[in-house]
Write a structure and sequence with these properties.
Elements: H1 4-15, H2 17-29, H3 38-50, E1 54-57, E2 66-70, E3 76-82, H4 95-113, E4 118-124, H5 132-138, E5 147-149, E6 152-154, E7 158-162, E8 165-166, E9 169-174, H6 190-208, E10 212-220, E11 231-240, H7 243-265, E12 268-272, H8 285-297, E13 303-310, H9 316-320, E14 325-326, E15 329-331, H10 341-347, H11 350-379
Parallel strand pairs: 3-4, 3-5, 5-14, 6-15, 7-13
Antiparallel strand pairs: 1-2, 2-4, 8-11, 9-11, 9-12, 10-11
Length: 380
């Protein structure tokens, strides 16, 4: 039902359109890589203070993170901003729009519910690299929240689905150098060991089937063709629909394969996770139901994805393991693929800025539903 409260929230988002567009286009015009988003942080925190938020910067030892808060009682509701860009592509994942949508939703919601809810606008850097939300989650930033919202631009408006748990692994085989023609010292060929490991991964793929995704590239394989390689290195992406299954089944099998090959070839092996564990996304069904109804009220068609539909990995997954979380997608143009020049161009278009209003409204309206539900619980 399109209540008076929801109408006022939508009107407030509309009143914020110019500011949302200014922020989005400013981020788009000056893309910054993860942990270097100082201008983005300045723009978003200045705008938050103007809307009456108290801002804390540099949270969880992340220099470009921030937590903006308004309101001191009632349910805790967070709207997450991302604002890092991609090397050479700029905002080809639409993080400028994510930031503007969450800003609009937070500012509108806080303006109308200061005495009824605690509104948080949380700046989350480096989503594309180290996963800033992982550090924020580990620091307890998301503990105790009643709802966490973030909307991602896409080619289609969808609800549901999940993401792949991911824990990338660097495998290094260490051998012993020698001249390839030496009669006295044959050396230990680290590249031979790595090639055996690379081939062995195919057996693991067959073993785990659709339960895991294992792929990789050789990033070091020697210095000259007439020298037995003493170091060979491979970076692997290792993923699964479940972080528990990934950590307890898949990764131990990968490590056992590498260790066995090292022992059989006389090499040694070291294994290092070069990125933290990105957990799978748990979409909260109650939040999804509110969001679906609010999209309907806004006239926005939405497709429901199967629970196991996963197209990638995101640090929002870690947040969803400690707080009720919703991470839907909003169409900004048909046929778009993220991380491409075309997507970057679309993220800076006038049409996309208009679409961002829908994302902000749907989040703010769903947050209001949480407030109503919290009020009902308190009366029981």
């Amino acid at each position: 039902m399109f209540t008076e409260e929801k109408k006022r929230l939508c009107q407030k988002v509309d009143a914020l359109e110019a500011e949302m567009t200014r922020l989005s286009l400013a981020l788009h015009a000056r893309p910054e890589l993860g942990n270097e988003e100082y201008e983005a942080m300045r723009l978003l925190t200045d705008a938050s203070r103007t809307q009456g938020f108290h801002v804390t910067q540099g949270v969880a030892a992340l220099p470009t993170s921030f937590v903006a808060k308004r309101g001191d009682r009632g349910p805790k509701i967070a709207f997450l901003a991302e604002y890092d860009a991609l090397p050479g592509l700029g905002h080809a994942c639409g993080h400028n729009l994510i930031a503007s949508m969450s800003f609009g939703a937070a500012a509108a919601f806080a303006a109308l519910t200061t005495s009824q809810a605690q509104t948080y606008f949380i700046g989350c850097p480096a989503e594309e690299t180290q996963g800033g939300k992982i550090a924020l989650t580990n620091a307890g930033v998301f503990n105790g929240f009643d709802a966490v919202f973030i909307v991602h631009p896409s080619d289609e408006t969808t609800l549901g689905g999940t993401s792949l748990a991911s824990h990338p692994l660097c495998v290094r085989f260490h051998g012993r150098e020698a001249h390839v023609a030496s009669r006295n010292e044959r050396g230990i060929n680290a590249l031979d060991a790595l090639v055996l490991f690379y081939q062995g991964l195919q057996g693991l793929r067959l073993r785990f089937g659709e339960q895991a995704l294992i792929a990789g590239i050789i990033t070091a394989g020697g210095t000259a063709p007439n020298i037995v390689p003493a170091l060979a290195e491979m970076k692997c992406t290792v993923r699964s629909l479940s972080s528990d299954y990934l950590e307890q089944q898949v990764l131990p099998a990968v490590r056992a394969l590498a260790t066995g090959i090292a022992e059989g070839t006389g090499a040694t092996v070291t294994l290092e996770h070069y990125e933290p564990l990105f957990k799978e996304l748990i979409q909260n069904t109650d939040l999804a139901a509110y969001f679906a109804e609010n999209l309907r009220l806004l006239g926005e068609p939405v497709r429901q994805l199967p629970d196991n539909d996963a197209g990638g990995s995101t640090d929002v997954g870690n947040v969803s393991h400690v707080a009720p979380t919703l991470h839907p997608e909003l169409s900004i143009g048909a046929g778009l693929t993220a991380h491409t020049p075309a997507f970057a161009q679309a993220a800076g278009s006038a049409a996309a800025q208009k679409r961002a209003l829908i994302g902000a409204k749907a989040m703010a309206m769903s947050a209001w539903d949480i407030c109503l539900q919290n009020t009902k619980r308190s009366l029981l």
